[in-house]
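Lab notebook: predicted structure, single chain.

Context: the supervisor wants predicted structures on file for every construct in the current expression panel, including those that have not yet been purified. This is the next one on the list. No modifications to the sequence; it matches the entry in the shared construct table.
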Amino acid sequence: MGRRRRRRRVDPADAARALPEAIAALSQTLPAGPSPETFRRAKFDRPEAAPALWRLLFRVLSPQLADGVSASFSPEAQVRSVKLALLTQGYPRRALAQLPDDGSQGGRELLLALAWLLARGPLPERLLIQNRVQLGDEMPVCECEALASPGPPAPSVEADGCVDIRHLQWLMGKLRFRWRNLMASQQEQCALLGKIHSYTRGCHSDRSLGHLSVTETELLRDPEGGRQLLRRLERENARLQAALEWRRRELVFWRWMVGGRGPQWSAARTALREAVGQDLAALRQACERGGGCSLAQPHGPHRLVRTEAGAPGGPGLRAPEVIEALRSQEARLEVVLRQLQGQCRQELARLVGAPPGPVWILPPGR
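Prediction complete. Output recorded below exactly as produced.
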């Protein structure tokens, strides 16, 4: 006779600890992550949870800002930045945009927005990659931007008075000037990197690299920087361990989020499911058209390594591969630029009251 399998009874104490541990692991992977108690208060829409979640979303949506820079933003500026960033990424709920700009309300809406960002993709892993400690001189290749994001809404200006076209021309000239400065600074940076790689040739213990990076050169010049780098690596290791713990306990968090009751939570869950489905459909269409990044195309940042002509190269990308990837990306950006320029010309023509297209000026006497 076969024995019946007894169902393993879940200890209530273990179930009670699972949710705070899952949220704590998630908070450690996010910048300025709030405590599990803040998440609980946000689910019940308690006003004291709103400021911490506004700061969290601001840091999540602006990962390139350092701690000191982000602290200089006022709470009102952070709220407006979060609203604009979620709008440009296609966040489906309008209730968040209607929240006051002082950041005193919206705990539940902000929790839904965070869940939407988590459901769209590996958010903790993406933040860890963006904020990781870089030991080598790297170059981004094919960063695979979000293909499904609808992007910012089309410009629509409903002005009662006239629009100063000269101001728009001044802004375009200022943009071109800054673009040239950016290109010049990047060229100067590449020249300095080339000198460092050339002067430190043969100093690296790894023969496939052959030279030192800027960070490794700084370690030789300033030993105190090595201790600071070690502390940064230890903090990054703690975040990586928290990300692994979050992936093991992620299901507990999602059960707690879809366990809400009432029409508001049901509508939010439906909107979340539809938004994720639209993103997946757009990603499939982009891959089918060939506009997305193929598996054979290099991805992510790669370390810059200087090699002599005819010398056997180590693992990584070769210069022709990088050049081909950059040329392909440049062609795609040129197409997008021409589309945006056409939209700007049509919008300027609408603002000045002239029809789009060529304007024929008859000679005198006709």
